[in-house]
Write a structure and sequence with these properties.
The protein has about 280 residues and is mainly β. It has two helices and 17 strands. The protein has one domain: OB fold (Dihydrolipoamide Acetyltransferase, E2P), CATH 2.40.50.
Amino acid sequence: MAIRNYKPTSAGRRAGSVSDFSEITDKKKKPEKSLLVPLKKSGGRNNQGVITTRFRGGGHKRRYRLIDFKRKKDDVAATVVSIEYDPNRSSRIALLQYTDGTKTYILAPQGLKAGDTVMSGENVEPRVGYCLPLRKIPLGLTIHNVEMQPGRGGQICRSAGTAATLTARGEDWAQITLPSGEVRRVHNTCRATIGSIGNADHMNVSLGKAGRKRWLGRKPHNRGVSMNPVNHPMGGGEGRTAGGRHPCSPTGVLAKGGKTRKKRKPSNSSIVRRRRSGPRYTEA
């Protein structure tokens, strides 16, 4: 895929860019109706109507595409009918039709196109789009949609352009290196799909105007220093101020330098080497 820039007919067009959607098979084709379900919005509110996540609301109406993250239909060949756009995620999705007539959606890896054949199972060959247990995947291959627990479905590396690398394997456990540089151990019976997720240029798209962010359901994010003291610890004062204290949340929790991961999270024991701190760290 590539990024398309428009002529600067307005301020929003000047700064904005879009994907050219060249990998989409048929732009006029509607999604598979049997794999669509309603998607209800919460606007960041809980079951009592209280806002628990700020700056959310609005956005374009969507329908959720049911994605097969488990890939449990073993040793049955499936043909890729089309590569489609999914408004609920950054990656593209592929519509599969199995030889028995069943249709499912999967995350579309880089290089997969309409007409290709994919399979899943214990004894299939490690090709792009094929799903295998980690104990059957050769070391050094890039993988995505990796399970954290056997049979639960893929949870790791599902966004556009991401992939993990299978670096080591023991009798019961395998080690994978994530895009952040973190090394994590996963059980050998967990499944993963060969290849990396497509639509890698998604990170280079510039929205260009505030309205496109509203289409995604994101409202303007207000700064704490622009509020009143009753609303935020950093608010108040005459004129613009620097805050007068270290940045914090509306409840006073420090925003920089603190640990955000739960100390007793069950998956902590699976981390062999933590990622380095700092934005956009990638393993050299």
